[in-house]
C-alpha cells in the first residue's frame, strides 16, 4: 500500500513499465525457460522490427515478452482478466512498444556519449559468469554456454549480454537526464498531476486481524469492533496494535500506512472510507478475510509534498518520461515493423506459462 521508490520505478522504466532494476542485476527468468533451440534454428532468427541499423530479431522480441510477463505483475493481471481484447495481441503490442523505446533509449544514450567504465564492464561480466555457474546444471546434464542462453532465455549469449549492457547504459543515461531535470514548482505541479495516484495519499493507522483456521469471521469482527471502540474512547493505538496484531511489518512502523488512489481497486472499501471521512474517524473494514481497524490521521497533498525529496524524485521521473515520450512521437526515430514476421509470432505459450506462475503467486498472497 505504500508507494515509495517501487512505484516510481514502475513508471520510469520504459513504456511497458518493466521493473527490472539494473544495479547490474542479472537473473534467471523466474517462471519459465525457453524451449531449447539448436544452432541452426538460432541462425534463422528473422528481424521483426528496428530503427535504422539497430534491429530486433524474433528471439529478442520473445525475450522482451518474457521480461514483461516475468516482471510486470499489473500488465499480466490486465491481460489475464481482459475480456474485450485478445491477450495474445496485447502482449505483442506491449512488447513492440518496449522494443521501440528500448532502441530509442539506446540511440539517445550513445548520442550523449554514455559508456560503461572498465569496472562496470567487469562487474557485469562477473554477474554473467555467476549466472552461468549457478544455473548451468539441469536434470538433463550440464549446459554449455551456447546452450545455456538458448535454454533459459531463448537468445544467443551475444544478444543476451548485449541487451544487459545496453540496459546498464540506458540506466546511466536515465540518471544523467534526471541530474539535469527542471524541478521548479511548476514542473513539480505537473508531475503531481501526472502521478496523482502515486503521490496524493491518506495517512492512516492500521491494526489488522486475520481470520485463522480456528476462528470464525463473526468472532474476529467482534474483536475488531471492540478494538475500534477502545480507540474511540482514548486507548493508546500502539499498545493495542502490539497486543492484537501479528503483522510484524505493520508493528515495526507502529501501524502507520499510507493509502494511495492507485490501490482503490484492490482496497475499494478502505479507499471509500479514507476519502469520505474526517481526520480522526475510525472504522472496521474487511478485505479478503482480513479485518482492518483503521483510523484516518491525515492527508498528504501537493502543498505537503512540495520540495520534498519524494516530490523531486517524481519530478525528475516526469522530466525523463516526457523527454522520451517527445522523442517517440517525433520524426527523429522511425520504428519499422516487418509485418509478415510480426504477424507470425505466437506468444501464447509464454502467456500460458506466465499465467500459471502468477496464479501461484496470487493464490499464495490471498
Written overview of the protein:
The protein has about 375 residues and is α+β, with helices and mostly antiparallel strands. Helix content is about 60%, strand content about 15%. It has 18 helices and nine strands. A four-stranded antiparallel sheet has the order 6-5-8-7. A three-stranded antiparallel sheet has the order 2-1-9. Helix 5 packs across helix 8 and helix 8 crosses helix 16. The two termini are about 15 Å apart. The relative contact order is 0.16. The N terminus is likely disordered.
Provide a compact summary of the structure:
This protein has 366 residues and is an alpha+beta fold.
Throw out a few tags for this protein.
366 residues, alpha+beta, four-stranded antiparallel sheet, three-stranded antiparallel sheet, 18 helices, 9 strands, 13% strand, disordered N terminus
The average pLDDT value, as a whole number, equals 87
CA-atom Rg in angstroms: 24 Å
Please, how many helices? 18
Q: Note the run of SSEs as H and E.
A: HHEEHHHHEEHHHHEHHHEHEEHHEHH
Structural class: alpha+beta
Helical proportion, percent range: 55-70%
Strand content: 5-15%
**What is the topology, as strand order, of the major beta sheet?**
6-5-8-7
What topology does this entry show?
Elements: H1 4-12, H2 39-43, E1 47-51, E2 54-57, H3 58-71, H4 73-81, H5 87-111, H6 118-135, E3 137-138, E4 141-142, H7 145-153, H8 157-179, H9 185-194, H10 196-199, E5 201-210, H11 217-232, H12 237-244, H13 248-252, E6 256-259, H14 268-276, E7 282-287, E8 290-300, H15 302-305, H16 309-328, E9 335-337, H17 339-344, H18 348-365
Antiparallel strand pairs: 1-2, 1-9, 3-4, 5-6, 5-8, 7-8
